[in-house]
Design brief:
19 helices; mainly alpha; Serine Threonine Protein Phosphatase 5, Tetratricopeptide repeat; 3 domains
Length: about 375
């Protein structure tokens, strides 16, 4: 299937059920050594389906083979999309430094290909990882760089940048600046239309801190009414932020509402272990506040359970990474030998010579090199 055929087919596939879409991409990706633009596109759309379901680990598993061997593929802007998709998936798995690495690599590739359109996007993503690490000063530095190149991007990118800037400034208690950034994002860049859920969450915490209860209540109700529709990452952020508001204001009803919502989410998605750990942490905090010893012990058991599952997953992921590394090196080794004779290629011999020259023991030993020109091997005998 060539590139144009894929695009035509993909538009038809989008109308099918999720299961049918997954099957289509799975079949396309069975050709492991197909280093084409079509493979990049198929991997992206396949991984995106699992991301939308909150299955971040599967998303990473699908995209990782493209990422670790990206230099073997033709450049296409969708390659940057793959880096961003695995970046947001690892972000949701709370692996923020890994996520940042993917965004920084995407920025490097964009710069190498003079894709100025993507600069602001990548700087904003890098800032998000710093926000999650509570390193708000670094987040603001990345957002300042995003502002500088915003002119080369779609104007709507400003909605993301200024809402994230407002969030970072809030955390540093620079509320006047945070309000200015928020209002700029909404009035000039229409953030309330482009990223309505982000605006709602940002506004709720901002107006809570500014002690404007009417506005806070309005945005809080909007968040609570949409929680069933949120992706896992948005859901986690909303729960965490509203729970903190409820805890600060001693709002038991709000905290209990959040805990019930998280419990319902975990019943629906029991394999979302990072959400489960976050849920157990909030239960623990609530139980400590109430001095409920039984609830504290139960929450600690839940935290340990999810931590053990995370460790188990990390081990499995490490093994998969090793397997991919071995497979890629195997492919490289195959490319270093002539398919007909089995002899190494000239490039492979140069590599061997470089190794000898760097080895103190070997470079002091006599080395012989023989060249032979063999013709006619492909002729029929």
């Amino acid at each position: 299937m060539n590139y144009n055929d894929f695009l035509t087919r993909q538009q038809q596939i989008k109308k099918l059920s999720i299961a049918e879409q997954k099957n289509f991409y799975e079949q396309l990706l069975k050709k492991k050594y197909d280093k084409t633009e079509v493979r990049i596109l198929a991997s992206f759309y396949y991984g995106q389906l699992f991301y939308q379901e909150g299955n971040f680990r599967k998303t990473i598993e699908i995209i990782e083979p493209i990422i670790v061997d990206y230099q073997s593929y033709p450049y296409t802007p969708k390659l940057l999309s793959c880096f961003n998709l695995i970046g947001v998936a690892t972000h949701c798995e709370t692996e923020y430094n890994v996520s940042r690495f993917f965004y920084e690599t995407a920025l490097k590739i964009a710069m190498e290909n003079d894709e100025k359109y993507y600069y602001a996007f990548e700087y904003n993503n890098i800032a998000l990882t710093y926000i999650e690490e509570q390193n708000y000063e670094e987040a603001l530095k990345s957002l300042a760089l995003a502002e500088d190149v915003l002119k080369d991007c779609d104007e709507e990118m400003g909605a993301y940048i200024y809402i994230n800037k407002s969030i970072s400034l809030q955390k540093l208690n620079r509320l006047t600046e945070a309000l200015k950034a928020f209002e700029l994002g909404v009035s000039q860049y229409h953030a309330d239309t482009i990223v309505p859920d982000d605006v709602t969450r940002c506004a709720a915490t901002l107006y809570y801190k500014l002690e404007q209860p009417e506005k806070y209540e309005t945005y809080k109700k909007q968040i609570l009414s949409k929680m069933d529709e949120m992706y896992a990452a948005e859901f986690m952020d909303a729960c965490r932020e509203l729970f903190e508001c409820g805890r600060d204001s001693c709002d038991d009803n709000l905290m209990n509402h959040i805990l019930r919502s998280m419990n319902q989410y975990m019943e629906k998605y029991p394999d979302e272990i990072k959400v489960g750990l976050e849920f157990a942490e909030l239960i623990y905090v609530y139980a400590v506040g109430k001095m409920d010893k039984d609830a504290i012990l139960e929450a600690l058991e839940a935290k340990n359970y999810y931590k053990d599952r995370i460790i188990e997953y990390s081990k499995e992921n490490h093994i998969k990474s090793l397997q991919q590394y071995i497979e890629i090196n195997s492919q490289i080794s195959e490319l270093e030998r002539d398919a007909l004779t089995g002899f190494k290629t000239r490039k492979a011999y140069y590599k061997d010579i470089a190794i000898i020259e760097c080895d103190e023991e070997m470079c002091n030993q006599p080395v012989g090199i023989a060249f032979a020109d063999v013709n006619g091997l492909k002729k029929n005998q």
